[in-house]
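fold description:
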Amino acid sequence: MDENKQNSSLAFWAYLAAFLGVFGHATSEFFSVYSGLKGPEVSVWRFTIGGAALLVVALFQKESRNLLQPILEKPLKVIPLAVFGMSMAQLVFHWSLDFASVVQVATIVTTMPILVVVVERIINKTTISAPKVVSGIGAFIGVMLLLTDGYLDQLELGGSSLIGMALALCCAAVGALYLVLVRPLIQEYGAVRMTALTFIIGAFALWITVHLVWEISVNPLTLFDRPPQAYGSILALGIWNTCIGFILWLWGISNAPDISRANYLFFLKPVIAALLAWIILNNTISGLQILAILMVTGFVTLELSYNTLIGKWKGLRKKNN
């Protein structure tokens, strides 16, 4: 019984951490645009500031202080995941915003939970249950309704929009692959250590890539040589969206009983963004958007509590019989 309570408590905190991580992600597109920089350059700044912040956090904790251990023990897993996993996903994510609107990018990236289920099936041979299929499709339809209501003009397909949406889809696919592959490493070495290594190694990889491909050399000493909105957005991306947000998100999904189910919380990202715009920016929310919010939250809640609801239903049925 005590073990069941302990597992239940861990599951609760894992899902809560994943939700808070999604809350952090909900503003990343906006801070990227507010920075006023091109996407590839933003990704370098994000990894540089985020990696530095994560390094400080890792060094403050005894259990995560030995950053070399994962690299020395499993270099062929840790380094490629950092360079070709999270770094590539974030590079194409920020790059996509140079071609497509925030609405378009947010819509496509929100397919990540569905792709996680598919990748989990291919790599770990997990079963895809009917409730996951139904709730995933239902939640994504709700996201589409939420993001397209009032923004249909932004969804017109053109040459640049198609490029941006293709990059956003690439981000979702690479991100889904990374989340599935990094899960055992986080369970072994901890979320703080693995997240710090991901962004520290990724910062060097992105700096070299952006320098060679885009001929942009990022100098961290020039951070404050720009308007407050720009460096404030960069700091927010590095400290809030990256350091805090990714630790919570990766720890949550790696310790949740079901990684696919935990990732369904990602569907709440546009819902959170819409509510923040309503509360902070006084943006109006239409009836269709309210319906979409209820639809998304309803399907996510159904998926997260499916086993509990089925158990109670079976219990009531057995009692009545």
Summary: The CA atoms of residues 59 and 261 lie 32 Å apart. Residues 13-320 form one domain. The chain has one domain: 13-320.
